[in-house]
Amino acid sequence: MQCQLHVAGLCYSCQWIDKPYSQQLKEKQQALVTLLETVPVEHIGIPVSGAEAGCRNKAKMVVSGSVERPVLGLPVKQGEAVDLCGCPLYPESMRDAFPHLKQFIARAGLTPYNVERKRGELKFILLTESRLNGGLMLRFVLRSETKLQQLRQALPWLQAQLPQLQVISVNIQPVHMAVLEGEQEVILTQQDVLEEQLNHIPLYIRPRSFFQTNPEVAAKLYATATEWVSILNIHSMWDLFCGVGGFGLHCAANAKIKLTGIEISAEAIECAKRSAAAIGLSDIEFDSLDSTQFARSKHQQNIPDLVLVNPPRRGIGEELCEYLNQMSPDWILYSSCNAQTMAKDIQQLTGYGIVKVQLFDMFPHTAHYEVLTLLQRIEVR
């Protein structure tokens, strides 16, 4: 992938961009093997990858510059603002939308927020694209509601320029820190969810719910999880940290599995329930709860055949590992965006051995990757 921003020394987010992509995959695979070298592994698959460019479906842009000439990109460093609107990780359809967003900022009088002076209103712009129909979800992160009415009044112009805008919202984030979003979300359109579809499974994204940023590789990740689960004779499963339900819905839609999905985000749970209804699944339950507290409350009650965990970068932690050891489901399927914390967790899952491991390159040109690991309870003889 060629990137003029990198060549010019303006952006170093893709730290591995100068390495051939085949070399990137080789080094990531070796890093994973090294992390797991003290744990017996029956099978390690070859890395799964996708497109090197145009692979991201979400842009998180810091807004700087002036109201007349806004800059969308990286935080200001040493007085310099770096515009990322030409970043080749975004598909052309998303890059084409950025100039209209800049014009809108000027028309609506949305003064970019200045961190040092603690002045201005517009902090971030977040844009998400559906690969299903090209629809866009746009979020403005403002410091207060001061400019909300101005934004509303100018919105028809933007919608005329970008008719693919399906969901538009404003998030109010009043803290004078580099925090991405606040608790208050104001929906400005009749539609409040962006519909996506991976492997013919309908998924829904709300403004504050998490969704994978690389849909091509995410589809392969979900398909692999479905394939692995389908041959295990599973009748019941928990999907912890389930988000909008991608893993659980894929597995349950292809087999008669009693599914319980747990996620702390109420918005994500609403999306998961909507997907389940669209598919026609009935033997399914989604609840907005803390995953560790849920597992602790259900200890030794209706233990599922399989527990799937897809935690944030911090991993599942010592407490949940302990409860999984005590519960002893036959199988644990661990999806991780941080192999280091996953490896630490696996060391604490003392009653389990690794059956399969597969690397998914969700983040090309960086050292980061996603990994899927199937663990089986070790029979004590």
TrEMBL record:
The keyword 4Fe-4S applies. Belongs to the class I-like SAM-binding methyltransferase superfamily. RNA M5U methyltransferase family. RlmC subfamily. PANTHER family: RNA M5U METHYLTRANSFERASE, TRNA (URACIL(54)-C(5))-METHYLTRANSFERASE. Catalyzes the formation of 5-methyl-uridine at position 747 (m5U747) in 23S rRNA. It comes from Limnobaculum parvum. S-adenosyl-L-methionine binds at Q212, F241, E263, N310. It catalyses: uridine(747) in 23S rRNA + S-adenosyl-L-methionine = 5-methyluridine(747) in 23S rRNA + S-adenosyl-L-homocysteine + H(+). Its EC number is 2.1.1.189. It comes from the Bacteria. InterPro entries: 23SrRNA_MeTrfase_RlmC, MeTrfase_TrmA_AS, MeTrfase_TrmA_CS, SAM-dependent_MTases_sf, U5_MeTrfase_fam. Pfam families: tRNA_U5-meth_tr (PF05958). GO terms for biological process: rRNA base methylation. [4Fe-4S] cluster binds at C3, C11, C14, C87. Keywords: 4Fe-4S, Iron, Iron-sulfur, Metal-binding, Methyltransferase, rRNA processing, S-adenosyl-L-methionine, Transferase. The gene is rumB. The active site is at C337, C337 (nucleophile). The keyword Iron applies. One of its GO terms (molecular function) is 4 iron, 4 sulfur cluster binding. This is 23S rRNA (uracil(747)-C(5))-methyltransferase RlmC.
